[in-house]
Amino acid sequence: MSTEVQSGQKTAQNAAPAKGKLGVMVVGLGAVATTMIAGVEAVRRGLAKPIGSLTQMGTIRLGKRTDNKSPLIKDFVPLADLNDVVFTGWDIFEDNVYESAAHAKVLDNETLQQLKPYLEAIKPLPAVFDQYYVKRLHGTHVKKGKNKMDLANQVREDIRNFRKTVDRVVMIWCGSTEIFLEPTAVHASIEAFEKGLQNDDIGIAPSQIYAYAALTEGVPFANGAPNLTVDVPAMIELSKKNNAPICGKDFKTGQTFMKTVLAPAFKARLLGVSGWYSTNILGNRDGEVLDDPESFKTKEESKLGSLEYIFQPELYPDLYKDIFHKVRINYYPPRGDNKEGWDNIDIFGWLGYPMQIKVDFLCRDSILAAPIALDLVLFLDLAQRTPSLRGIGIQEWLSFYLKSPQTREGLYPEHDLFIQLMKLKNTLRHIQGAELITHLGLEYYD
User: Fold this and answer.
1) pLDDT digits over 4-36, tens only?
2) Name one GO biological process term (predicted).
């Protein structure tokens, strides 16, 4: 039974313990998903460390700095143990997780061989797919149905069948970026959305079918791509109604991660920015999909959003009102999953004198994304077991992981990585009844 504890001015209820198996249903068993699944198994076997995972390696300060009390996050809040995590998923190709991981070429062959029997045993369920929404892919392992509601019901049946083998379920979208869609009347309510499913409304993409199925079944949902998915009224309503937490979208991995680190530094020092040019080269399946202009538009909107919110040009017109911000992604097959993100930043300082900063981030896209996907799954499961979180729908405290944080209507999103981290850790302190950390520090000088 959860107990009530005092946290600041509000009373919180502790999260329920993580008993039994946590089932993770992954949509899209490609590079990111297979890197996460193989990585979790490698960690479980003691073959590697879970580097990049806040849930596994992060600590949280409790009380004063002089108390020297900073337990691991996984020892402070009741997260599911990695040994209790069970994976399944859907994909538009029949390859099992080993075959898909070998094709992705993210992990070395020696690692994959050690994990081969485990990875081969995870075979994808047929996926919901429509080439209209992802032009560059040709799915061969797909569900058929008389309409989109029929497809949603097939996904719900998949969830129910999997649920018989585990104790709790979370779903995460690791599929490719869909074409750019804007909310329409079909997204305005649950009733309108369900009518749209029956009528094969063109505004309902496959990712929304998965999200509808998950939330209707009371399953938390995370979106690793920039698609319009749970960020519509119908899904927010479903999330609250069925105690199935949701969060923002699009894993914050390489270039945008760097932007949400650097931009707050410029703003903190009141250095102006006249231009920020960002380009990427990427050769994996994601790069191929983003080579399509309609899919790129979806990603572009996600990647462009962070700077405006961080810089607040309406408050600092002399510094940030006229920024020229350009983002490009180029498909370059020889690079594979090893993405290169290059930024040229034109800044200006005292008396308006110009300066430049250039960043060349040769990153590994799926290596950065895999621990984010794992953390989102574990934290959404925690949120569902926490009385003060599970019924509010949007989990804004998970913005730390996402290019496009989701907030309630009328509330601007926070993109500053360090504010996001403070929000995340204070949420964990709050639900466990610990004192919130403000970093004021005056108590040390009384």
Assistant:
1) 444 444 445 689 999 999 999 999 999 999 999
2) phospholipid biosynthetic process
d(CA 223, CA 402): 9
CA neighbor of 12 nearest in space, from 4, 22, 20, 21: 4
- Asked if 141 contacts 124 with a C-beta cutoff of 8 angstroms, the reply is yes
Looking at the fold, whether 296 and 381 belong to one and the same domain comes out as: no
Question: Phi and psi (nearest 5°) for 12?
Answer: -115, 160
Q: How far apart are CA 159 and CA 166, in angstroms?
A: 11
280 and 413 both lie in a single domain: no
As given in the structure block, the two tokens for residue 367 are 């290596």
Closest CA to 209 of 242, 168, 238, 245: 238
Residue 436 forms part of a structural domain: no
Q: Which of 347, 362, 377 is the last residue of a domain?
A: 362
Q: Do 343 and 372 belong to one domain?
A: no
Location of structure tokens 């790069």: 287
Residue 323 lies in a domain: yes
Same domain, yes or no, for 339 and 376?
A: no
Same domain, 300 and 373: no
pLDDT for 217-248, tens place per residue?
A: 999 999 999 999 999 999 999 999 999 999 99
Per DSSP, the chain holds a count of helices (H) and strands (E) of 16, 13
Which residue would you say has higher pLDDT here, 346 or 340?
346
Residue-range definition of the domain harbouring residue 288: 256-362
Per the domain annotation, does 442 fall within a domain? Answer: no
Same domain, 213 and 325: no
Looking at the whole model, is its pTM more than 0.85?
Answer: yes
Does residue 440 belong to any structural domain of this protein? no
The set of residues, in sequence order, having a beta carbon less than 8 Å from that of 418 and lying 6+ positions away, is 264
Residue 4: strand pairing partners: 13
Please write down the HEC assignment for all residues of 5-45.
EEECCEEEECCCCCCCCEEEEEECCCHHHHHHHHHHHHHHC
| Residue 317, CA distances (Å) to 217, 354, 378, 384, 414 in order | 47, 17, 41, 42, 19
Could you tell me the pLDDT band of residue 287, with boundaries at 50, 70 and 90?
Answer: low
CA 82 to chain centre: 19
**Same domain for 136 and 82:** yes
Give the number of domains in the chain. Answer: 2
CA–CA dist 407, 325 (Å, integer) = 24
How far apart, in whole angstroms, are the C-alpha atoms of residue 363 and residue 256?
12
